[in-house]
Design brief:
Helix 11 runs parallel beside helix 13. This protein has two domains: 271 residues, Aminopeptidase (3-Layer(aba) Sandwich); 154 residues, Glucose Oxidase, domain 1 (3-Layer(bba) Sandwich). The longest helix is centred in the middle third of the chain and has 20 residues. It has 472 residues and is an alpha/beta fold. The chain has 15 helices and 16 strands. Helix 12 links the parallel strand 14 and strand 15. The strands form two sheets. An eight-stranded mixed β-sheet has the order 1-10-12-11-13-16-14-15, sandwiched between helices. Strands 3-2-9-5-6-7-8-4 form an eight-stranded mixed β-sheet. The structure holds zinc ion (ZN). Zinc ion (ZN) binds next to helix 10. It holds the Pfam family Peptidase_M28. InterPro entries: CPQ (IPR039866), Peptidase_M28 (IPR007484). GO terms for molecular function: carboxypeptidase activity; metal ion binding; metallodipeptidase activity. It is found in: Endoplasmic reticulum; Golgi apparatus; Lysosome; Secreted. Keywords: Carboxypeptidase, Endoplasmic reticulum, Glycoprotein, Golgi apparatus, Hydrolase, Lysosome, Metal-binding, Metalloprotease, Protease, Secreted, Signal, Zinc, Zymogen.
Length: 472
């Protein structure tokens, strides 16, 4: 009777993992909780390389650093895959209120901004809260003004406030330029009250005249808004000398823990090697680099070797247009069928709050068996709506199943893209906890013989949804 029931049940109803595999996964999890490979890597990256904006000398140093570290840690097939990246050179911003109450403001230049004239731009401020509000204004209201976007980012455990707030950073200047604005200021896309601006990427579309764009620190944005509320015209002076240099070469850096299976299938663990230039890129995304490298290394230290290869991909230039991820997806499209699963760490080394998968619903019992091993860490399966995040999301576009490990991002956007994203902000216990999650999941994915098929496509996005692939 038992035999009949077992034979009649769908294959997936059987235990997806043997007791020995589950034991090995628990052992990897426990070793990860005692292992500081990731923390040591991050200390090294933030100290010996530091800021590594694409196209800069720091970027080239980061590629050399990653190749050397992966080799030193015993990874196989360590190599760089060249990627063309943009090269923008940050200038020195100057921002001040001229009237009604003159005083200086703390601002940072947004990545991709262009210089002002040497004498600067002095003009009246036109406040709006969003791109939608700007779009409702007649052109003669905007022409000759400095447009100020005052929308505030909401603090949230999921980090969801970022997607809602960030469109003005990417497109505020382009949309304002189309209507004749001279420059743009935004309230920083961040949740802190520190007197630092949050930089980030922006882009102009074909036919738009590039104009300078700045992010004010939140306290300076507050002060500006009080002046605007006085009802008197508010006039500011802005100056900057940023410029575009020629595109240059960077690289995706790859290293593998070879699997024992001859099919050549791989699990991709991704993070981005580049960072913004103002801090050390500690949480964003040095932490991801450290977590994924350490996770793969821990799997490689177990016996036997994993069935499938664990491939670490450290992507070039996530921050300024996803150059590395786009190149990787293009150049590896032919082997997409062999990439069984992708995961990415790019939401800071904070407490993991849950795992999302993106697999066919019949496979959810398998995912649940995997996340059950994370139960002692307090990390549950929270849904099947994973996106793979900015870089590995480009693999999801190819139909590759993805898992996301979400973190408590409540504090992440206090320091994101600021000078305060430094190594001292990293809690080694949280780094180990993230490493334990990815290592456990990657190991079990490598062992799950049938694989995860192809990822289901998402339901059609609601019209107001944030654009996909927002760089983090
Ligand atoms: Zn990032």
């Amino acid at each position: 009777m038992l035999a009949v029931a077992a034979a009649a049940a769908p294959a997936l109803a059987a235990e997806p993992f043997t007791p020995a595999t589950l034991d090995a996964a628990r052992s990897i999890r426990e070793r990860a909780l005692r292992d500081d490979t990731g923390y040591d890597l991050l200390r090294s990256l933030t100290t010996e390389v530091g800021p590594r904006l694409c196209g800069t000398p720091g970027d080239a140093r980061a590629v050399a650093w990653a190749l050397a570290k992966l080799r030193a840690l015993g990874f196989a097939n360590v190599h760089a895959e060249p990627v063309k990246v943009p090269h923008w050179v940050r200038g020195t911003p100057h921002a001040e209120v001229l009237a009604p109450f003159a005083q200086p403001m703390v601002a940072v230049t947004l990545g991709g901004s262009v210089a002002t004239p040497d004498s600067g731009i002095a003009a009246e401020v036109l406040p709006v809260t969003s791109l939608a509000e700007l779009a409702l204004l007649p052109e003669n209201a905007v022409r000759g003004k400095v447009v100020y976007f005052g929308g505030r980012m909401a603090r949230a455990r999921s980090g969801m406030g970022y997607g809602a707030a960030v469109p003005v950073r990417g497109r505020g200047a382009g949309e304002a330029s189309k209507r004749g604005a001279l420059a743009v200021m935004i309230r920083s896309i961040g949740t802190d009250r520190d007197r630092v601006g949050h930089t980030g990427g922006m882009r102009f579309e074909k036919g738009e005249t590039p104009i300078p764009a700045f992010a004010l620190s939140n306290p300076d944005a507050d002060m500006l808004e009080v002046q605007l509320a006085s009802g008197a015209p508010v006039k500011v002076r802005l100056r900057d000398d940023s410029y575009w240099a020629d595109s240059t070469m960077s690289a995706n850096v790859v290293g593998e823990i070879p699997g024992r299976d001859a099919r050549g299938e791989v699990i991709v663990l991704g993070a981005h090697l580049d960072s913004w230039d103002l801090g050390q890129g500690a949480h964003d995304d040095g932490a991801g680099v450290a977590i994924m490298t350490a996770a793969a290394k821990l799997i490689g230290q177990g016996t036997p070797r994993p069935k499938r290869t664990i491939r670490v991909v450290l992507f070039a230039n996530e921050e300024f247009g996803l150059s590395g991820a786009r190149a990787y997806a293009r150049e590896h499209a032919a082997e997409a069928g062999k990439i069984v699963l992708g995961m990415e760490s790019d939401l800071g080394a904070y407490a993991p709050t849950g795992v999302q998968s993106r697999v066919a619903t019949e496979l959810l019992p398998v995912v649940r068996a995997m996340t059950d091993v994370l139960a002692p860490l307090g990390v549950p399966l929270t849904g099947n709506e994973a996106t793979g995040d900015a870089d590995v999301g480009r693999l999801y576009d190819l139909g590759i199943p993805v898992f996301d490990v979400n973190t408590d991002a409540s504090e992440y956007f206090d320091l994101h893209h600021t000078p305060n994203d430094t190594f001292d902000k990293i809690d080694p216990a949280m780094l180990r906890l993230n490493t334990a999650c990815y290592a456990t999941l990657a190991y079990l994915a490598a062992e799950y013989d049938p694989g995860f098929g192809r990822a289901p496509r998402p339901a059609p996005a609601a019209p107001a949804a944030a654009p996909a692939a927002t760089p983090r």
